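Hi there, hope your week has been kind to you so far. Thanks so much in advance, here it is.
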Amino acid sequence: MDLSQPCCAAAVSAQVQFGHVHRRLVQRNLVAAAPGVDIIAAAPGGAYDVSSATSLAAAHVSGIAALMLERNPQLTAPQIRAVLTASTQKLKGEAGQDAGAGIADAAAALAAVKK
């Protein structure tokens, strides 16, 4: 799989409020936004903590990509990126500028992948 075109995800809250977006990284590589603000996640010592980070959003988008590959293991990285981008929930106005193609939509992405 060609991974020469890295992807990143913007972190977004349930109210479509964005966490810190690294503008230089985002301009070329942002594919979609995903939950990444005030997420309950595992913490050291077997505990849980509330965190906000683009890495949490990236895990969400990576999970969608994994489900797509489970459905069709022949998908290439460019095909995955194209489906992720095309299947997002589009945002209008200023919010859409920080969301890449929009909010990642797992159901729509999986529906777009043929077995």
